[in-house]
Amino acid sequence: MTKTINGFSKLSKTEKIQWLTAHFSADPKASQSVLFSWQHAEESIQKVIDGFTENAIANYTLPFSIAPNFLINGKEYAVPMVIEESSVVAAASSAAKFWQERGGFHAEVIGTVKLGQVHFYWPGNPDTLRELFPALKSRLLDSSKDLTANMEQRGGGILDIELIDFELIEPEYFQLRASFETCDSMGANFINSVLERFADTLEDFFTQHPGLTDAERDVEVIMSILSNYTPQCRVRAWVECPIQSFAELARAQGMDAEALTRRFHRAVRIAQIDPYRATTHNKGIYNGIDAVVLATGNDFRAIEACGHTYAGRDGQYRSLSSCTVENGTLRFELEIPLAMGTVGGLTALHPLAKLSLELLGNPSAEELMCITAVVGLAQNFAAVRSLITTGIQQGHMKMHLTNILNHLGANEEEAAAAQHYFQNQTVSFSAVRSFLWEKRS
Ligand code: MEV
Q1: Hey, where are the domains in the chain?
Q2: pLDDT in tens, 387-396
Q3: Cβ neighbours of residue 293 under 8 Å, at least 6 residues apart?
Q4: Does pTM top 0.85 for this prediction?
Q5: CB of 280 shorter than 6 A to ligand 1
Q6: CATH fold group of domain 64-110+233-390
Q7: What is the CATH number of domain 114-227?
């Protein structure tokens, strides 16, 4: 029986589920019952959620959690986070509390410029193109006025258009690189619409321009699309305190504040030197960032892609965070590009994204950039703190214990007994299973 289908997207949701389970499930009835039971939202909201993507057949649930006690630029936040990894929210909350007692987090937006490109091939002399560019640029700006009017009213729009010449690397390849201010929106649709208009205008310009040879009229636009690399849309978050503020934490680990600080500083240095460590170090930062980005209905793939390119901007992939210890003060800092929006996209459509923004006080995009960077820094701080002291598994497995107990079907009483027992024991799947076996026998 063939498993190819034409017109799957035209089927109703029920038909899709029936076809899918009939062809791809070992137990169609059981799979159907799972899929039909994961349609939780109230009808009108379910319709909106189903509209997000093609071929939606169920809702895939992730926990919507809160990390309280974030003090950022003197303002208190309880930050919504969406993530499946057990220990992430606990770690963020614990770092938030730690720094709340030490002056809190600081953050500032360095810039908000977004970029887009029209990639084209043109067979003429680059000097001629450079001469024509001022006239072309003004045509491009004129031709997109209807698209930019609203954004301009909000204080944004096109900032500049540059001609970039790649001739030395690839004959005939040029690029229009446009920069944009998109205010509180992430701006992807706005930028892409403007770029596609630029592409049409560019073609018209060459085909209609008097005085060009036939060959010079032969412009070929390859594509028009925003760039997710937005190094100028960047935020800095930092914490600082006298190293003696670590005395208590250090004592609990049998060290003094100087030793703890040295270990912390070295751990961050290692992530700046070694790409293997840097990747994991930055993954820890994105544990926090992605969770806030998802909770607020932003695009975590765009944000990750950009951040990793930025981490490799000098030719080697490095830590996004840095640490200095000077005059008895530790400063831990994260500088990261974050193209985020608080209007448009899913932000008003997804009920929990909308609520997340409301819980954060309906921030501007710039404020949300600050909050998100801070959570990334907090997450990084918590991970490195664990790594240089107890190791990561202690906290991680404590949180993961609940998953193991659920997996093994522990009832409430067994779970409570296990939580108590494993307070001072190493958690592993087999240790928990043995504990339950013994208890059950
Ligand atoms: C785990 O999700 C993240 C960490 O590996 C980050 C790090 O090593 O810094 C703990």
Answers
A1: 8-50, 64-110+233-390, 114-227, 396-440
A2: 999 888 777 7
A3: 299, 300, 303, 340, 372
A4: yes
A5: yes
A6: 3.90.770
A7: 3.30.70.420
